[in-house]
Amino acid sequence: MKTETPRTIDEILLETDLADRAVRKAVREAILRHKRLGHSIASSEQGKVVWIPPEEIEIPPEEME
């Protein structure tokens, strides 16, 4: 049976696709939580901070694995 050698932290951090997917998932979950709780979220439009009320929050699509 073949055993895998442990990867270094540098090798793991170079897997940007994995990190990107994790961040997108976390952002989606945070947006969903705010909408469900009836809380507004802050966003940026044309360099200015705007507040989006919960009824106007659009949920990003869930990624396919």
Compressed to H and E, one letter per element, the order equals: HHEE
Number of domains: 1
Strand order of the largest sheet: 1-2
Quote the distance from N terminus to C terminus.
Answer: 28 Å
Percentage of residues in DSSP E strands: 15-25%
Overall pLDDT confidence: 89
Write a structural description.
By secondary structure, the chain is α+β, with helices and mostly antiparallel strands. The protein has one domain. 42% of the residues lie in helices and 15% in strands. The protein has two helices and two strands. Strands 1-2 form a two-stranded antiparallel sheet. A hairpin with a 2-residue loop joins strand 1 and strand 2. The protein is elongated. The model has no long low-confidence stretch (mean pLDDT 89).
Q: What is the topological layout?
A:
Layout lengths: L8 H5 L2 H22 L3 E5 L2 E5 L13
Antiparallel strand pairs: 1-2
Question: Brief overview, please?
Answer:
With 65 residues, this protein is α+β, with helices and mostly antiparallel strands.
Record keyword descriptors for this entry.
42% helix; alpha+beta; 2 helices; 65 residues
